[in-house]
Each structure stands twice: as structure tokens, then as C-alpha cells.
Amino acid sequence: MSTYKLVCSNRSRMHGSFVVYQVPPALNNGQLLTLAWLSRPSAPNCRVTFNWSNSLHFVWGEMGTTLGGGVFDASQCIEADPYRANMVDLDKDDFGAPMFQNLRTGGTPGTLTIRQLNNVFDYPVSIGVGVGCKPAYTVDACANITTTFIPLVDRYWVVFGNFTQGQTFDVGSVSGSLMVEFDYNAPVQNVVLDMDNMLQLVPSR
Q1: SS3 for 90?
Q2: pTM for the whole thing?
Q3: 74-121: pLDDT as tens digits
Q4: How distant, in Å, are the alpha carbons of 2, 113, 132, 154, 192 from that of 185?
Q5: Mapping DSSP to helix (H, G, I), strand (E, B) and coil, where does residue 7 land?
Q6: Would you say 52 and 198 are in contact if contact means Cβ atoms under 8 Å apart?
Q7: Residues 193, 12: contact at Cβ < 8 Å?
Q8: Cα separation of 19 and 168, whole Å?
Q9: Picking from 24-33, 129-138, 184-193, which range would have the lowest pLDDT averaged per residue?
Q10: Residues 133-175: pLDDT tens digits?
């Protein structure tokens, strides 16, 4: 597990938010939704800093609605490991409430798997993967389906726009984003939104 830091400087004339997200890899069942994983507003000539642990989690929650897309708020978050505790069941308790149980080793090494049991809920439920216990991408829950995710921990994208943390959006319609990669030797990255409204990586000081 590593701790990363991303410093974003707004040197443009625009008001908005720096948004950090992940481009979800392919999975075997369902249509993945990308979420605004981290988001923080920034005025011109201001700087914001994001810090996080790249620990992975299974998450489930309800998808609310907001202008421009749904917003996912995790109702349960349990730590996962792609090579050890990488499989869990989505079940429900005696009162019909969704819950994760039976965390174990069982999925393909390097992946995270949620086995959805024979459950039908009275409201929409989504499942997915979180980084640092914040949801990064989700898919609609579906009874009797096993969903396998290929998690990301070191590769992120940054965009400047108008997004709420947890909001879903179509990455194909987003322009001007910048990929940022971290590793053990580069745990801190710096991004600048310049006067031409372009995002650029700059050397760490």
C-alpha cells in the first residue's frame, strides 16, 4: 500500500473543479460507470492538494440523481486485496438490506470479484471498486451475476470542469484530460492548468 499526493494549480482564468478519476478497464458483466473519484473547486491562481492511500475496497451503494448525472454514495466499504481477499458476496440480511459477506480468496489473482446472490432489492443498488474507500467505478447490481473488476491503483486521470465528487460521467465526452501515473519512486505529482486552459505535468519541487 502506498500514499500518493497530487498538487493541482489553476493558472488559468477559469473557475471550476479539479477532478481525479480512473478509466475503468473491461469487465465480464455489466456496463461500468466512471465516477468523479476526487473533486475539489479551485479559483484562478489557487492550488488544491489531494492525498490518498491506494488501498482497494469493495463498495456498494445507491445511485442518487443530480443535474448532469447520478451520484454514488458508498453505503458499505470493505478493504480488498487483488491477491488475497479478492472475492466477496453481495447478500441481504433478514430485513432485506444489502450487505457484503464472506470475504475470501477465490477470484483470479490480480482481480476483484463480487458474487451477487439471488437478491432483488426494492431500490437500485450499484456495486464497484473504491480506492482509499472512495468509489472509483461501479456497475448496476444484478441478481445471480458474478462481476469481476480489474483494479487500478497507480494510474489516474485529471480534468478541470464542473463535477461533484461521486458523480457519474461519460469519459468519452470529456476533453482535455491528463493521465498521471504514480509509483514508489514518484509518489508526488504536480499538474498545472495553464493560461491556455491546458493541463500539464510539471516537475516536483
Answers
A1: strand
A2: 0.89
A3: 889 999 999 999 999 999 999 989 999 999 999 899 999 999 999 888
A4: 11, 30, 20, 12, 21
A5: strand
A6: no
A7: yes
A8: 12
A9: 24-33
A10: 889 999 888 999 999 999 988 999 999 999 889 988 888 888 8
Residue 91: helix, strand or coil by DSSP? strand
118 burial via Cβ count (<10 Å: 0-12, 13-18, 19+) = exposed
**Cell output for 52:** 490518498
Query: CA-CA distance, 21 to 15, in Å (whole number)?
Result: 19
What is the rounded CA–CA span in Å between residue 119 and residue 171?
A: 31
Give me the number of domains the chain comprises.
Answer: 1
Q: Which domain holds residue 138?
A: 3-202
Cβ neighbours of residue 175 closer than 8 Å, sequence gap 6 or more: none
DSSP state of 191: E
Give strand pairing partners of 79.
57
Longest pairwise C-alpha distance within the chain: 57
Residue with grid cell 479539479, as numbered in its chain = 18
User: How is residue 44 annotated by DSSP?
Assistant: T
